[in-house]
Amino acid sequence: MKVPFRILHIALIVVLLASCGNNPAKSSANNAVKSDSTAVKGPAPINTDAHNKYNEVALYLAGMKIDSASTVPAKFLNLPGYKKYCDTMNIGFNSIEKNRLSKMRDWAKVEMAPELANPKTVLYPFSGPDILHCVQFFPDADQYIMVALERYGSLPVFEKLDSFKTLVMLDYVRVSLEDIFDKSYFITRKMAVNVSNQYNGFIPLASVFLVRSGYTILDIRYQHLLDDGKTFREIPQDSMGHYLNDCVEIYFRKNGGSKIQKLAYYKTNLCDNVFATPGLKENKGFRTYLDSLPEVYTYAKSASYLMSQSDFNIIRNICLTKSKTILQDDTGVGFAYYDPKKWKITLFGSYTKPIEDFHGGYYQANLEQAYKADSTHVKQLPFSLGYHWKDQVQNLMKFEKK
């Protein structure tokens, strides 16, 4: 990402929005789901049986053992290349569990104790499919709302696959996870490659992260948020991405637990303005939805410094208004937007200038000064999480509303 970055980010948004989905809606009003597209009855009850097709397929993609699989045919479990795939997944996840995830959970037990004791909604803007790191910090939230531009993707239907296609699919998943294993974040331009591939999208990757994090997937629903920002209508899976403000909902619970948690993902443009699809100024339905959320915990990581830009005023202000706590690195809401009279600020790790890809105006002198001025109170950060994965010089900040 070379200078000018502001132009590049806008161009990247255009590319992603144009490539993800089939001709996304140009306006909410013109592309709302028709009232007769689904029956007007209430939704069916959420499945609570752990032995279901969603969880079995997620375990398969995660390279994990499946007990009494009914969804995944034996011939796919016994593919010569599948054992190697499982070994690769185990090596990758075992490595980050030891070096990153376990340290994050231990850190959260101390530094996020109030949040752990009071589960609520977690808002994760610019998330990509990265529920993996979010649930290390917020493992028991009632719901997680994730918003990004990555395609929805889909879980494989084995009846439509042969051995060759299955191995190709597994390789797509493996390649998609390489940056998570090495760097802890997805590289957007790599996620945009090969738009016909459904297996590096949100649903398959988030499903892998959930089962690898000790959760059981119970159900997956496909919804459309209507223009009022309050009403949802269930839609067919193959309609996902055809309308503005479509949403996939994944229901899950901890292994051995009873509480059902919900993950909702929207492939939505969080910029203020229109770039291929409506931004938040025009997308009043989604803005109303965000405004009507209960008090949230906001999490932002590897967020490309977008909420420091003037093109992202609306989502930044929503985060600042709706959040009880914001946990972020320096790529989230610009430090200048936090009023010390309103926020208790706790700094962790070390602040250093942005990596080379983001040298175009994202250095925050006031943040560096805050780290220096409050050096005796800056807390250690026992893990690296974000863009500085090479030099391991990472920052994290917790903002608690007073």
Describe the structure.
Strands 4-3-5-6-2-1-7-8-10-9 form a ten-stranded mixed β-sheet, sandwiched between helices. The chain is α/β, with parallel strands linked by helices. It is built from twelve helices and ten strands. A hairpin with a 6-residue loop joins strand 5 (246-254) and strand 6. Mean pLDDT is 86; it is low at 1-40.
Rg, alpha carbons? 21 Å
State which percent range the strand residues make up. 15-25%
Overall strand count: 10
SS field, number of helical segments? 12
Order of strands, widest sheet: 4-3-5-6-2-1-7-8-10-9
Features:
single chain; 402 residues; alpha/beta; ten-stranded mixed sheet; 34% helix
Task: Summarize the topology.
Blueprint: H1 5-19, H2 53-62, H3 74-77, H4 80-111, H5 113-117, E1 121-125, H6 131-137, E2 143-148, H7 163-182, H8 188-191, H9 202-212, E3 215-225, E4 232-234, E5 246-254, E6 261-267, H10 284-291, E7 296-300, H11 313-322, E8 323-328, E9 343-349, H12 365-373, E10 395-401
Parallel strand pairs: 1-2, 1-7, 2-6, 7-8
Antiparallel strand pairs: 3-4, 3-5, 5-6, 8-10, 9-10
Helix pairs in contact: 2-9, 4-7
Q: What does this entry show, briefly?
A:
This protein has 12 helices and 10 strands. The chain is α/β, with parallel strands linked by helices.
